[in-house]
Amino acid sequence: MRTVDMTRMEFEALVSEALDLIPPELARAMDNVAVFVEDEPPSGDPHLLGLYEGVALTERGDTYAGFLPDRITIYMGPTLRICETREDVVEEVAITVVHEIGHHFGISDERLHELGWG
User: Could you tell me the strand order of the sheet in which 70-75 lies?
Assistant: First the structure.
């Protein structure tokens, strides 16, 4: 399989565009979260497209304060390797961004797959 050719800047722009697709009411509800692009995932999971690290909104209690921002990371390498066209990359980035934001809102992998954001 051939990897789609795309620069880091182009890929980051796709992630930004995917974030812009989040409905404003959901975007406003996101709290203390930052989104990053990395070239490759940790060595233990080379096929990982995205990762959410943090405390989901549904798990935060009255004592939630002073935490570093939650982190959503979108991985460029595996995404480009599984896609055949630039259009596939656009779609996969959007799905991955929504999937990881879903985790920020406390939605499980199983439920995200049921909703088509797998």
Answer: 33-38, 70-75, 50-53
